[in-house]
Specification:
mainly alpha
Length: 83
């Protein structure tokens, strides 16, 4: 009974491994085809661009709050009259 269970487990694991390898081979082949196409375009002089949804904006640099800066606490020497 133990031998049959271990054999069945081995067969299931081997089948899952085979499916994973086939899936990775298909994905890898597709990615390789894209790389070959992009390389051919680059050799032809075309510049690759990035899709808009893939662009990431850099976050603004973190700075101290304005109230802690010395120049933010200074009182203006005179107030300009509204013209």
């Amino acid at each position: 009974m133990i031998a049959a269970t271990l054999t069945a487990l081995f067969v299931v694991v081997a089948f899952a491994t085979l499916l994973a390898l086939v899936d990775l081979w298909i994905r890898g082949r597709f990615a390789f085809d894209i790389v070959k196409q992009e390389r051919a375009l680059a050799k032809a002089g075309f510049v690759p661009t990035v899709d808009a949804e893939e662009l990431r904006l850099r976050p603004a640099p973190r700075t101290a709050p304005a109230a802690t800066r010395p120049f933010a606490r200074r009182v203006p020497s005179r107030v300009r009259a509204a013209a």
